[in-house]
Design goal:
Radius of gyration: 29 Å
Shape: elongated
Number of helices: 3
Order of helices and strands: HHEEHEE
Distance between the termini: 88 Å
Number of strands: 4
CATH class of one domain: Alpha Beta
Oligomer: single chain
CATH topology of one domain: Fusion Protein Consisting Of Minor Coat Protein, Glycine Rich Linker, Tola, And A His Tag, Chain: A, Domain 2
Strand content: 15-25%
Helix content: 25-40%
Amino acid sequence: MTIYFGITIMKKRFALFMAALSAVLAACTPTRIPGPRTDNLPGPRTDTLGQPAIPLAPSTLEAYKEVLAEHISNANASQVFGGRPQAFLRSVIVVKFSVDAGGKLLRSDIIRSNHDSATEATALTSLRGSAPFPRPALQLLKHGRLELSETWLFNADGRFQIRSIAQPQMDQ
């Protein structure tokens, strides 16, 4: 009977210990003040103060170019081809452009072309039509702007991919 009685006392002590530990841990946990739920509501997400959430901008030029290429491609999805670019491309257009801190397109110029006016127009139209762009990271800006260049790769059918996110070109 003493063994049974000892186990019962141990169980009670353990239960009291666990209750005390739970109370201490609960007291150490910061209180969360529930705010308005925004996860299931339409519209832009907000931070805890109700301000629009601004995604973190990529901190390197290459990472920003990838985000920008995705943005341009998504805005012009019907003109973008999937898969690997052809071995012999119809046209390769390089556009130099500048973006301000807010993502506004400030200037765009073709700096390399094979003088295919249709693909030149498509490259410039796809760039200009997808503005404004995601905001660049402040460390990428010089004098309040970011100057960069991007390459449009055109297949024979006139659809394109942007080099920063394009797959490797076919061999044949």
